[in-house]
Amino acid sequence: MVSPQLLLSGTPHTRSPLAEACQRGRVLALFLTPPYQNSCPHISAVTSPSTNRFSARSIKTENEPAPKSPENEAALSRAKSVPALDPGRGLFRGKSPSPDPSPLATTRVRSPSPKSRTPVKVPERFKSPEPPQSSTRNPERVRSPHLADPVHNGSASETNGTLNGNDDMEYSDDQNSTRKKVVKVVRRVVRKVLPSDEDEYQKPQETAKPEGTKSTTLSRGFSFKHDTVKTEDDISRDIKQVKQRPVSMFVNTGAVKAAEVKKQEEAPLSPTEEAQRRLMRIFNAPLHTDLPKPVPVQAPEPRGGVQGFCSRVTCQTGSVEDEQIALLQSSHAAADRSQVKTEEQIAAEKDWYGSEKVWLVHKDGFSLATVVKTEAGALPEGKVKIRLEHDGSILDVDEDDIEKANPPSFDRSEDLASLLYLNESSVMNCLRQRYGGNLIHTYAGPNTVVINPLSMPSMYSEKVMHMFKGCRREDMAPHIYSVAQRAYRNLLTTRQDQSIVLLGKSGSGKTTNTQHLVQYLVSIAGSTGKIFSAEKWQAVYTILEAFGNSSTSMNSNASRFSHVVSLDFDQAGQVSSASIQTMLLEKLRVSRRPESESTFNVFYFLLSGADSSLRTELHLNHLAENSTFGILPQTKVQVHK
Ligand SMILES: Nc1ncnc2c1ncn2[C@@H]1O[C@H](COP(=O)(O)OP(=O)(O)OP(=O)(O)O)[C@@H](O)[C@H]1O
């Protein structure tokens, strides 16, 4: 299962990559600002461009000054007492946090939007439904204007049926049953002719409606997910989803994916889905047996100079951590060595080129083949004869379906840009070979591709960090720490802003890698007066995650907002302040959450933290026990110093 990829770039900051990234969707960005800059003007480059109209509008609205009103003034005065989330005025700047930071921290990490929110005029049809009218009331008062006249054709009454269910008392039973039948038939026909998303969306609600639950007074054009009475099962299911998260992230995702794959086998796939499945097949396929065996894990001898490997850590103990270091070192050394070829290798490569190896691209991935030479005119134009390597079968295929293969020495190439033949199959083959050897990071020119390992490898530790400290990019194996190191080094040598933008689909590891970047920078650079630390960052992020993360079909702890982290450095190269700006929070999830996905984590945390009297008071006493999330009431408030 797996392998969403993640593209990272650690290049000197310019507006264009960020703007481009933002146009593509949700991104994470990390800015490093040298000492001469007190504020970071680039955040606007992240916030303003967006192709998502809804998001763009909400940002714009939120940033506009609000009209003066008592409420707004109160909000403004509140905002004044809270440090703004300007990049230059970081959360961690200045004094250490007060001993009881929890309420303040929550406010301080808020997106700056509320203080200037413009009241939105809600169109009449989008307003919350009125409470159901009592049947003793005068029907004239509650009747919808659409039903001023008695309706006999059924369809019209269906459109408004839920608005005036009680009004129908004036009809006789016979009329009612006939009407209902007609409504059913019309509804069925309409659904068949015009199957819409909305219908699909409403279907589960109808089936899930518990017996005895009255229809809610909703217009057909808009409905709230929670307007149907939520059963204990629904709530417990949501709780379970969150509970399962820390235990087995990928088992969950895998189960969902497996179910999806089954479904998709029946339905035609979109090009994106098809590409995703092809990717999964490639990464799940066993490694090609003809390829050279992985280089034995052993630390190379430390060498100095520009081309030498920057080896600060030697492996003595043989722990898992050391193995990882040795693996990185040996793969880098092997890549280095591959530039100097022995006579044997040169001869083997000559053979390779002489036999003209190609990749045959097919729907399951690509297969190695050799072009069979034929006489001119023996094959129709545009066709080529090949012999597949794995079973020796001869095929006539389209020229467009083959791509040139690189010699095996390029299989674990550290930089995709250095491949002799740069095509999709060769790139995938290189990534696949590296992934099979536990090497999830690969350079792609100035960028770095990271493949989600779906496990917790020991490639992130202080020891590994130390290995990268002070090194140059060419002396280091590809790693997320080398991205951070390169940005830090550039910052110190050029005194220019640096940015690292993380791109990738949901679940590809943007958040995880941001954590590693921050951790690396703060532990390597240090922090002035310990104002900033990895623990403080983690504490802030815990709160952000509670309010902005939820379980989705792609990721059981998906961030439903974008954020920009800025680190400011002083003359000594230490972190002097940090800030985080959040944007594009998927607020709609509160009122309209997608089927089989949860709402924001904080709701489940609150439920699990409520004591029994509060639960009884709120009629929540039938919910699962407090320990559902492993958060006990007395320990649920954690103060991070
Ligand atoms: N390099 C990695 N090493 C270990 N685990 C990883 C790595 N990258 C991702 N993961 C795991 O994959 C899961 C998803 O990662 P993460 O939440 O960072 O993805 P994301 O891109 O931020 O997703 P979203 O956009 O939905 O928020 C996490 O459980 C994380 O532990």
TrEMBL record:
GO terms for molecular function: actin filament binding; ATP binding; cytoskeletal motor activity; protein phosphatase binding. GO terms for cellular component: myosin complex; nucleoplasm; perinuclear region of cytoplasm. Residues 201-212 have a biased composition (Basic and acidic residues). One of its GO terms (biological process) is neuron projection morphogenesis. SUPFAM superfamilies: P-loop containing nucleoside triphosphate hydrolases. Residues 40-179, 196-220 are annotated as: Disordered. Residues 40-55, 104-116, 154-165 have a biased composition (Polar residues). ATP binds at G504, K505, S506, G507, S508, G509, K510, T511. Keywords: Actin-binding, ATP-binding, Motor protein, Myosin, Nucleotide-binding. Residues 411-641 form the Myosin motor domain. PANTHER family: UNCONVENTIONAL MYOSIN-XVI. Belongs to the TRAFAC class myosin-kinesin ATPase superfamily. Myosin family. This is Myosin motor domain-containing protein.
